[in-house]
Amino acid sequence: MKIGIINSGGDVPGINAVIASAVKSGTLYGDEFIGFIRGWEGLLDPVDFVPLNLDSVKSISHLGGTILKTTNKGRFAGKIGEGSINLIPREILEQAFNNAKSLGVEALLVIGGDGTLTAAIQLANLGLQIIGVPKTIDNDLSVTERTFGYSTAVELVVESLGRLHTTAESHDRIFVVETMGRYAGWLALEGGLGGGASAILIPEIRFSYEKLYEYLLKRKDNGKNYSLVVVSEGAMSVEGERVTQEHKTSSEVLLGGIADEVAQKIREMSRSSFEVRSMVLGHLQRGGNPNAADIILSQAYGTAAIRAIHEGRHMEMVALISNKIKTVPISDAVRQFNLVTPDSTSYITAKSMGIFMGQ
Ligand code: F6P
User: Helix or strand or coil: residue 47?
Assistant: First the structure.
């Protein structure tokens, strides 16, 4: 078969391992591959793609980023803001469909998160065989237990908190550390848990400044003159709004800035008796090489996607369910975000360890 590979949206560590494993596996079936450059844009006029073969995917599985480049803007946005579906104009969908057909592409392997996979459904509805692979450091896709890239991002948060811990303790300071994650608190929660945070503020639970301050004061009274407060970029105080930055180039709002706000508020509430610093981990969480867990998961997904294509599956996504790789309808994965809930294991763990979770 001739298979097209597309990755779209933000890069995450592990994309290259998906591409390499898919090409290696497909080659055993006698498949031919092309990879579209900069996501959906490469499938639209003027088309931009490269042939992919065993030579071009040699020694890339351990590398971060993507050899195909990517973008989270452009003519093929699947979602706007917090979950509303963006209907891609019919002429754009037809252009992509016709370009795929004239290149002889019989199936598309689409590596993406919520927005990319929502766009993929719209193209698949025109009749192009599409199989999705769940990619995002936010871990916010439903049905699958894990998206690739998430584990590496959590590791970065854990390592960063470990480093901040020693300087915070030496200086008797409070550090407010902002993580990515959009509307899901997984990165903040599990990064904070692994990295020894005292407080973790996530989008799923509106936090109280008064209670946070009380908690920090109590720590001080107990001789803990330093604290690490992890705040997810989508977190909101009881009375506040999401802190956003203008996103000039995409239909998605760019979240960010809550760490500064939290730091300033703690400073004010303590009448500057607490020395507070804030920092945003930002794109460090997406950069760099994938860890072993992400390489292995990416390879499992890449090869399963090729199997699914040969089984004739359509509009399905490979997913990790009870530690087995299965396929599920893409629509089930993007219908709603996978969010932290009171019965999430890591939430229960954090509460059981006395970590402040917002209330
Ligand atoms: O969805 C992945 C993600 O890294 C989010 O966690 C973050 O909000 C967003 O992308 C950042 O986007 P950009 O790459 O446009 O800064």
Answer: coil
What pTM did the predictor assign? 0.97
Q: Is 180 in the pocket of ligand 1 (CB under 6 A)?
A: yes
138 noted as active-site residue:
yes
Report which protein residue has its CA nearest ligand 1's atom 16.
254
Closest Cα partner for 344 from 183, 199, 145?
145
**Mean pLDDT taken over the chain:** 96
pLDDT in tens, 274-331: 999 999 999 999 999 999 999 999 999 999 999 999 999 999 999 999 999 999 999 9
Sign of CA dihedral 131, 136, 139, 142: negative
What spacing in Å lies between the alpha carbon of 106 and ligand 1's midpoint? 31
Q: Could you tell me the strand order of the sheet in which 32-36 lies?
A: 49-52, 32-36, 2-7, 107-112, 129-134, 316-321, 324-329
d(CA 151, CA 60) in angstroms, rounded, equals 19
